[in-house]
Amino acid sequence: MIRIVSIAALLSLLVLVLYLPSAHPPERFLAQIRSEHQAMEEIWGEAPALRILDRALGLQGAAREATPVPPSADASAASGVDGAVAREMASVNQRLFGNSYFRAIDALVLLAAFRMSAMLEWLPWMAAFLAASVADGAISRVIKSKEFLHHDPERFALYASLAILLTCGGVVAMVVPTSLHPLVAPAGLSVLAMLWGRSIAHFHRRG
Fold it and tell me: What is the pTM of this model?
């Protein structure tokens, strides 16, 4: 059951992430970032909101450096036959990756980086709750084993499947260019932590 849910959720996630850049122009993602940045200023203040934005730009820069597409500056630096080949490849890359779809993907990555950065801002506040939920599940499992009670594989599969669906839903929520309340991220982390804890409490070992 868990494998079926995982495969279905990941395939749905892939389709949605590839579909969104074709349905929305790059300006839509950038406008959403500006709107959420203003909301962050109202909740956190100006300095933390700027820190979130700076962290998001750093994450996008790291993602851009990992791309296999060579920068156009390398083409102009070369000379002779190598320069002609490099300029031709740069022209092909520009035509291939410079269209509206790939610019929308770049803006989508920036929106995801911004929301990821905002979630990291909540992480120090949520770390204690996350650790407590996981520890509670582990302690419950130990108590059941000491009492010679059987762990419930059905409940383990249910909680694990719900955690997988919530995780994939959270990834989709990070790239959808619609307004999300800033408290959605900590609420989702709280529910995910409780599902992890319950999954650990009912984890069963075969054999």
Answer: 0.73
pLDDT digit string, tens, across residues 124-174: 878 888 888 888 888 888 887 776 666 677 888 888 889 888 888 888 888
Q: Which amino acid is at 14?
A: L
CA torsion through residues 47, 52, 56, 58, sign: positive
Q: With beta carbons less than 8 A apart as the criterion, state whether 204 and 151 touch.
A: yes
pLDDT tens across 78-87, in order?
455 566 666 6
207 pLDDT more than 50: no
Answer for the pair 199, 163: CB distance below 8 angstroms, yes or no: yes
| Residue type (1 letter), 99 | N
Six-digit token pair at 20? 């969104």
Mean pLDDT for the stretch of residues 169-188? 84
Question: What are the contacts of 95-104 at 24+ separation with CB within 8 A?
Answer: 97/69, 100/25, 100/26, 101/21, 101/22, 102/21, 103/26, 104/20, 104/21, 104/22, 104/24, 104/25, 104/26, 104/29
Using CA atoms, how far residue 163 sits from 6, 196, 204, in Å, is: 10, 7, 17
